Structure formats: structure tokens, C-alpha cells
Amino acid sequence: MEIKYKTSPIGNIYISIQELMKDYRFPISSTIDALGEYLEHLRDDIYICVEFPYVDRTFRDSYYSYFSTKRRLHTRECIRISLFNNVISDGDFFNDDSLNDIQKEGNFLGYLVIRPTEPNVIAKTVISPNALKRKDFDCCLANYKITLNGIGLEVSGFPHQSQDEETMKCAEVAIWSTMEYFGNKYSDYKPILPSDIVNILKKYSYERQLPSAGLPITQISYVLKKMGFGVRIYSKSVYKDDVFEEIINSYVESQIPIIAHLKLGKSGHHAYLIIGRKVISEYKINKILPSKTVQTLNGNVNIINSFNMCENYVVIDDTFPPYQLTTINDPASYYYKKLNNEKKFVDTIPFGKEKQQKVNEVYSVAQIENIVVPLYKKIYLDAYSARQLILNIFFPANEIGYSYNENEIILQLFLT
């Protein structure tokens, strides 16, 4: 099948897709609905290149292992939409003078793939934070290389996709995103496919694995362990609230993405990744209060824990576009808006109006129950143990210790 391309401003994205797909059977309405969520977060001055057909490796794996066996006809083909900072046209890919501009550093802003699995059609997506309307955060990023119309392009972003609800639920997507990130950033790891997750868990599953019913926290941890990580699980019930957030913050500051396991209402659960934090303002740093005071050889020293400065964390949630901001105490806050200290729910969350009220009630009381941390196997001290060791060495409960010229110290932990 001939590959076709269509370039346009991002404001004409729907017209470009419909022109390119007019002769093909594809869930256009679901595609338009899903893209609407993304357009709210992306800059209005971006240019796009729509490409069809596109072979997405992850969806092809799901297609051959599951979707191709269903009675309902599914196409194997996907749409890829590439994002650019500067103006591009169809002829630029065949013009030597324009090729340098296309490949210029910072011009390529990433891509998103549309698969035919309505209603959740967003497949593998890597978008640079520079493509967003607001970029006031720092987070984990990996470099990705692609070829578009024969031209090599590179972008830094964090991998994201929506669950297809049959081969990948939120837990599988979280595992996939984790391995995509580490597999592209470090040579010790490799990306994972949906069928790989099924095969790893095959002998530990006592029910059918497809269609997926999701994964418990122990199976998420087991898959990551089999992929080469020294995994640690932390449960909120074991630690005090401030200690639990301190552990999360230590891994975020160390650029280690973690999988958060949320409890929704009485029996529901959800999983997403925490990959960064909002930029801390100088005003916030100056206003922060000490969390404790310790006795040293030179007198009392006030200790400021760095996690107290961080109010918002960056998450990758398969239900929403990437790089959402939320808090640890209200981990699903982006599912609704807060006005006048009351929770006023968004009218456009992607669940349909008939489910909206129920979803609002569930997510407004969401809490992080556990976190799964994929540590490098030679990181022997985890965040909690390392912090306790630092406190015992530098601030011992006796007269032996260090003398400090300052009466205030900021404590921030990095694991390397």
C-alpha cells in the first residue's frame, strides 16, 4: 500500500485526516474525539504531517496476538501525526534546501499514533514538552529517533499511549511506558510488547490473560523484575504520609519514574507513572519552613526537606494526554477542577456524560495506595534506607558529628 502524507497547520488536523482517509475504513469519529483532548494541551502554532498507513510495532503485536482472531474486522494500519515547530509543506521533504530546516534541532516536536481500537485510539506517542501550551515542569525524558518520508528526526519526550481495554489495561500501559523509557535511554534494558507481558506472567496466571482484566501490584513488580530491575514496592499503610511523599520525591528528584497504584472508591484501582515535578519558584523556596530541628556541635540546625517545596508532580496517565500535573494527596486532581475550594467537575472528561458523575465520585477520593520503583539492580540502598543513613551520619543523636556554619540546611536526596 502506498504511504501518503499530508501537511498542514495543527488547526486543520481534522481536515487533513479526513482527506487522507476518505478511501479507507477507519474510526474517524473516535480519532477526532481523542485528538480534541490533545489539542487543548498543544500549542496552536504547531505544524503537522499526517502519515498513512503507518506500522506501529506495539499495535501490530496486539493485532496478531489478539485482534486478528476476533470476528469484527480490524485493520492493521495506523495513522502517525508528526509535530513541527516551524512551517512545513508537502514539497519540503523533496527540497534539499528545506531538509536542513526540517531536521534543525528543536524543530521536530514529536509524534502521536492513532490505532483503530475505538474508543481509545491513541497508540504510541512521544511528545516534547516544548509542544505544550505550558511547560513549567521538569521530568524524565528519553531520545527517540524516527524516519518520516525518508528523513531522520529525533525528539526528547516520555512515551505514552491509551489502553485499548482488551490487550492493555492501565497496568500493562504503565509497564510498557516504563520499559519504553528505560529501553531507549539505557542499553541495559529493552522495550516490551503486550505479548511479552502475557508470556512473562503465563505460568503465574490462574485465569485467561486475554482480554486483560488488569494486573495486581505484585504482577507489575514481577514483570519489571524479570526485565532486569531491582524492584521495590512501598505501601502507604507502612509509612507516615510525609515519609511516603518523601520517598516519592526522592525518586522523582533522582529521575527515576515510578508506577503509582491508586485506590479508587471502595474497590476500584488505577495505575499511572510519576515522572517529574513542577518547577519550584524562588518565592516558594524562601517561604518554606523547617521540618525539624537537630542538635549539632555548633548548636541547633534547622532542616528543610526538599519534598516540602514540591506541590505538583508530573504524571503519565493513559486516560489523559501526557504530562498532567497533580499532587500526592489528591492524585487524580486533573480529573476535575477546584473552584472556591470546592470540587467542580469537568464536563468534558473522556468517559461520556452517562458515566461522568460516577467517575467524578470515584476519582475525587482517589489515594495512592502503593508505588512500584524500578531500580537499577546495583542500587543497593533504596530511598528510605539512604535517607535514614544520611540523617544518622550527619545528624547523630550524640555529641559526635559534624559542625555546621549555617543554622539552616536543605536536605535533598539523589540516587545514582
| Residue runs with pLDDT of under 50 for 5 or more positions | 338-349
Radius of gyration: 23 Å
Strand order of the largest sheet: 1-2-3-4-5-8-7
Structural class category? alpha+beta
Largest pleated sheet: 7 strands, antiparallel
Multimer state: single chain
First-to-last CA distance: 48 Å
Which term fits the overall shape? globular
Mean pLDDT: 88
Strand fraction: 25-35%
Number of continuous helical runs: 11
What share of residues is helical? Answer: 25-40%
Order of helices and strands: EHHEHEHEEEEEHHHEHEEHEEEEEEHEHE
Question: Quick one: how many beta strands?
Answer: 19
Description:
- The longest helix has 16 residues, at 170-185.
- The protein is α+β, with helices and mostly antiparallel strands and 416 residues long.
- The strands form four sheets. A seven-stranded antiparallel sheet has the order 1-2-3-4-5-8-7. Strands 6, 9, 10, 11, 14, 15 and 18 form a seven-stranded antiparallel sheet that branches.
- It has a domain at 1-162.
- Helix 5 (170-185) packs parallel to helix 7.
- The chain has helices at residues 13-20, 28-39, 57-65, 96-102, 170-185, 194-201, 217-226, 241-253, 282-287, 353-363, 383-394, and strands at 4-9, 47-54, 78-84, 108-114, 122-127, 137-139, 142-148, 151-160, 230-235, 258-264, 268-278, 292-296, 299-305, 313-316, 324-326, 336-339, 342-345, 367-375, 408-411.
- Strand 4 (108-114) and strand 5 form a beta hairpin.
- The chain is globular, with a radius of gyration of 23 Å.
- The chain starts with a strand and ends in a 5-residue tail after the last strand.
